[in-house]
Amino acid sequence: MYVSDVREVAEGVERIDLFFDGPADETLSQLQTPSLFFYRDRATARRRYRAQVAHLGDDPLRRMFGIGRNVGILWERPDVPQRLRAIVRGCLRP
């Protein structure tokens, strides 16, 4: 997994873009993983998450958004394999 970009998108919010490189597994090497948005605290991250997904209802695009601790997750695609999601969520555990 590589960090492909880091930038401040708003005051106090950094965005980190990740990329998986898995030469032994073609599904990993062809998928860009999420952009991670680091907020100051969990409450801010949760408010932003709710704002992003509230209007989606049952839309499958809702799977493009996630949250872990104080980090908002924006997946590149809604059909990212569960094992990639688990890797990223695992990295965000305390």
Report the sheet with the most strands, covering strand number, pairing sense and barrel closure: 5 strands, antiparallel
Q: Tally the helices.
A: 3
Dominant shape? globular
List low-confidence stretches. Answer: none
Considering DSSP H and I runs of 4 or more, what fraction of the residues is helical? 25-40%
Class from helix and strand fractions: alpha+beta
Distance between the termini: 20 Å
Estimate nothing, just give the exact number of structural domains: 1
Going across the major beta sheet, what is the strand order?
A: 1-2-3-5-4
* Count of DSSP strands: 5
| Percent of sequence in beta strands | 25-35%
Rg over C-alpha atoms, rounded to the nearest angstrom: 13 Å
Along the chain, the helix and strand elements come as EEHEHEEH
Query: What does the oligomeric state look like here?
Result: single chain
Output mean pLDDT: 79
What do you see in this structure?
By secondary structure, the protein is α+β, with helices and mostly antiparallel strands. The protein has one domain (2-91). It has helices at 26-29, 42-53, 82-91, and strands at residues 2-10, 13-19, 32-38, 65-68, 71-74. Strands 1-2-3-5-4 form a five-stranded antiparallel sheet. β4 (65-68) and β5 (71-74) form a beta hairpin. The longest helix has 12 residues, at 42-53. It starts with a strand and ends with a helix.
